[in-house]
Amino acid sequence: MGSTSGIDRRSLIKRSAAIGLISVPTMSFLSACASGESADNKVEKGEKSTDNPLGVNASAPLDFVLFDGGFGVEYAEDAVKVYEKTYPKAKVKFGSTQKIQSELQPRFNGGTPPDLIDNSGAEQMDMGVLVGKDQLTDLTPLLDAPSIDDPSKKVRDILRPGIVEMGQYDGDACYILNYAYTVYGVWYSQTALDKLDAEYPEDWDAMLALCAKAKKKGIAGWTYAGKYPYYIPFSLYPFIGKIGGRDVLDAIDNLEPNAWKHPAVKAGFEAYYELYKKGYVLKGTPGIDHVESQTAWTQGKALFLPNGSWVENEAAGTTPDDFEMKVAAPSSLDSSDKLPFGTLWASGGEPFIVPKKAKNPDGGMEQLRIMLSENSSKNFTGKVKSLTALNGGTDGLELTSALKSAVAALEKAGENILNPRLQDWYVELQKQKIGVGAIGEMMAGRMTPAEAMKKCQEFADAAAKDDSIKHYRHK
């Protein structure tokens, strides 16, 4: 997720840009996928062994295409060198692009896709389409293979919470391996709080009291990407899940009738609406974009910002040296919350896929296994200031305050990590309809919480009845 810059990064979790870009070509893409090419173009499998658990053909070429975004390409190039050292007879063709869909659609149509793709950026291919049309390899063999650093543990056992689940769309098959790991929540400057002689508020009364204190100093409590209000759920959704339990978010993801009418949704909406009503949101916020909101925040005009852990890199140009950026889980509403303070939304980003018609799918999965080694993970984190899907891999690294706080937040959350799927199951519903058409309107004061809840349910009901949409459910 954090690998893209600006709009590209946002599209990783929302796919709207990709949908817009492929709205017409998708028809030819789908028809080509459906018609199918011969599947007999696979390289011969190699012999499985302790050192080669996936049975990689040691001399077969590997074709790897990476999205060239904010994470750059160096981390992947370094991992490719490890593959080449492990399989010196294999010729690796490594390329990078920002135009994933434009450049790779013809190859999918022709039945000659790469062996491994970082399907990311503004031209990200729609995952639901790829999964629905059976165009991706099930990565279960990778997940069940021994990990590089500790062969006694399977790859699936060394991954952070939610990584496997995010790659699952129907049943137990896993089609996507999200390599980066994003911590969503409420971002703040420890320096700014210190100046107010304040700690991060762990309940809503304390949040409102701190916002009131800041307001007296001419500082807003909150700001957000007003033009893209689907950023608000980065803290609002786990707030709702914390209040009512993860089943509330699961029901929303499942498009269940009356899911948006749950008391936890009502409580969450009303709490956030109170920020607007009491003037604790930075004036003009509904009219600014993500960069402008982040800039206002780093300039000290507002205390809190709902965002993801890519914000450190994205806002680096305006962040003072003494800002001491941190992230925290949403405040509790009160002591009646179903889940404890520290409950967090964290999930994978930067989705890697192995096409079903790849010539060397075993090689593609082996490259991912290498990337999930501690050395490759540390290399990534050290160079791009982001965590990976590897659960750990930060020992010995000098972490920034933002990364330290993200690691600490994950440790505090423990098993209480939420992973709403609306954002990747139903992109348009989450972004344009619920995000912009309901939550954004509420936070701008143009809709009451009750009206926003009703509108969200109407949008969800319409999506549930739309037979043109592939529907998914939590297991």
Automatic annotation (TrEMBL):
Signal peptide: none annotated. It is found in: Cell envelope. PROSITE patterns: TAT (PS51318). Keywords: Signal, Transport. The keyword Transport applies. It holds the Pfam family SBP_bac_1. The keyword RNA-binding does not apply. Its main location: other. Belongs to the bacterial solute-binding protein 1 family. NCBIfam families: chitin_NgcE (TIGR03851). This is Carbohydrate ABC transporter, N-acetylglucosamine/diacetylchitobiose-binding protein. It comes from Streptomyces koyangensis. The gene is ngcE.
